[in-house]
Amino acid sequence: xxxxxxxxxxxxxxxxxxxxxxxxxxxxxxxxxxxxxxxxxxxxxxxxxxxxxxxxxxxxxxxxxxxxxxxxxxxxxxxxxxxxxxxxxxxxxxxxxxxxxxxxxxxxxxxxxxxxxxxxxxxxxxxxxxxxxxxxxxxxxxxxxxxxxxxxxxxxxxxxxxxxxxxxxxxxxxxxxxxxxxxxxxxxxxxxxxxxxxxxxxxxxxxxxxxxxxxxxxxxxxxxxxxxxxxxxxxxxxxxxxxxxxxxxxxxxxxxxxxxxxxxxxxxxxxxxxxxxxxxxxxxxxxxxxxxxxxxxxxxxxxxxxxxxxxxxxxxxxxxxxxxxxxxxxxxxxxxxxxxxxxxxxxxxxxxxxxxxxxxxxxxxxxxxxxxxxxx
Length: 376
Fold this sequence. Notes:
Layout (H helix, E strand, L loop, with lengths): L4 H21 L4 H4 L2 H14 L7 H23 L4 H4 L4 H25 L3 H15 L2 H10 L4 H24 L4 H8 L22 H19 L7 H16 L10 H17 L10 H26 L3 H12 L5 H8 L4 H29 L2
Helix pairs in contact: 1-3, 1-4, 1-13, 3-9, 3-13, 4-8, 4-11, 4-12, 4-13, 6-7, 6-14, 6-15, 6-17, 7-8, 7-9, 7-17, 8-12, 8-17, 9-14, 11-12, 15-16, 15-17, 16-17
């Protein structure tokens, strides 16, 4: 049984490394249905329930220190990949589709939350899920941390995300062949624009890993220092927002052209997931089927709203499909759907997905505060 801070952190890091490397190095079908983040969370939770480590004072302090510092550092690095100037060049149809995807998701979350009568304690779960479905797992962690969502509730969000995400990817890929008929119905012309370099920090410039690590930790300290002097939203919420804005600003400096930020942010993300899983337990998991059903209904309402928007604004199936998956699936899956239509459109999907790093945190928090306000 591990009771030291170093032993605990080493064990958690080993869990994250095992599944992270396995996913990257193998072609296992498993990861098409269960992303590494879900397996990392589950494995860490199982080890915790098996008593591999204790919740000693040293372990508790190590958990709090690692989590509180890795979260803003990760957000800062992820924001370096966002360039609003490129996003605004997408054109009317794509911007309309992306906006419709974001707004329909927000509305669907509120509608389903009210329909099922979820309480204030469950508002954080759906806020975190919304952060993921507007951005990615990093946004889920950011929203969950800002709203103080428990480790167990975050586990429900991970499972709901993974299961419904898989269904949505399959559904959107299956609809590709229906594009010509859909476009005739909506009155749209199939999009065949191409995008060149999108300015992603992970694809250009020299790699400077240690410099980026140092800067991300300095950014984390600076954001926490600033958050401690701000009131109203809470220290963690302010830390998340400041890290997001600081990274977005730094994206317009030479740091935005430096490769490596995405790799380091991804490593921090896996460590954060393992840390959160190491504190969860199995209590209340009988509620998961209800959350899965709620998540599925959210996606169906979101899809129906996008179809209506396509008819209203004459959008093609590619635009609404990729806009949807750029939110719900992120960088990992949106390019796959785009390539199924036309390989020249992959850049558009990547750009939309990268924008989710920014939209996901703010959108998830906005939905979260709304859910808390309407909760019984």
